[in-house]
Model the fold of this input.
Amino acid sequence: MIAPASDPRPSVLIVDDESAILDTLRILLKNEGFETHVALGGKQGIERLQDVKPDIVITDVRMPNVGGLEVLSAARQRDPDLPVILMTAQADLRSAIQAVNAGAYYYVQKPFANDDIVAILRRAAEHRQLRVENKSLKQEIKRRGFDTSSRPIGRSKAWLDVLRLAETVAPSESTVLIQGESGTGKEVVARYIHELSGRADAPFLSINCGALPESLLESELFGHVKGSFTGAVKDKAGLFTAAAGGTFFLDEIGETTPSTQVKLLRALQEREIIPVGATEAIPTDARVLAATNRELEEEMKRGGFRSDLFYRLNVFALHLPPLRHRKEDIPLLATSFLERTAKARGEPLKRLSEEALEIMREYAWPGNVRELENSLERAAILTNGEVIDPSALPERITERRSEPLVSERGPTNPTLDVIERAYILWVLDSEGGNKSRAAEVLGIDPSTLYRKLSRFGVEA
Done:
């Protein structure tokens, strides 16, 4: 059960003019782990708001003298983030509209099932804690002089630890190596570092090093001179030059060839580049942030990545946790993605049912945050009403696999190549062989997927 950190039990103020209803709800909610307080009538309910300082209010709408809408108004004035649930035996469209317009969290009709009211209150408690923690985080960042609007979403300890390290290194000029599985938000963190740095007013440019062949990648990175290769009809400045004064983000740097790695090392070490076909070096002034989903130290041992470049990049390392290690962030991320989808499509905001949210918490999310976002966008499109149920989620998320993910017949100490190959083929199979969707879930460019399949000896 989710509750404010200051108290393991969410406190609920129950307001009704019928003693029997008060007693029933008090006993029910107390047995479900809530701290309960009661008020007989709306006038007493408003008085008790200040004394009790509840986390949630549940109040009847129709009461003599002071009604539930007045209790709602008083609660919202005291605390705009306080969830208020209205209940009535005379459900009508007008009062429902009034309640929603006045800021009610939920509107229920008597008689209600016990399980339903408990589920609504638990959801309200979670909503309350998210709002309180977000406000606390924003205040903390403001005290440290950071802009709260761009802070990447998350409240788990693993994620907050990463953000605090990012905030520490941001004002410096140090090169940062961001490591983590595909889809964990490496570019999001890189942009956050840029926005908190002294280079925030200058460009933030990025390139996926695994998406281009070597010759084209080097031209994009360093530029080229006219006539240096077929099609080079004029001089072209590279991204290192274009990012002067700002930040240059090199994504999937582990996919670069040894030749490109040598040139990147020169750019970092000497702070100068030589365009393709040129003979003279030109200075560069771009702060470099790099990212990889590979274990570069293992790649060094195998000779696939230069050790001198690794140590030049690894001045300050950030390790992003996979989503399966920060599942408490799923509700917050889901709300953000659904809000974004609703805004983009010009539609009312949709929310996840308790069952759908529970299924999403249990899923391993091999594609991490990117897979979560894509799955929610799909679910929002497939859902006609305001509540997304499990039927709108992709089958790979809702299905219960009976076979173990690790077999006793497998190798005792599988290599990284074996693990990577198995994982890629599993995602490909989950997507029905669709390579574009598989690449999206994996968080890599389709051309990178084709190269990996070729390296594994799999027909592309």
The first strand starts at residue 11 and ends at 16.
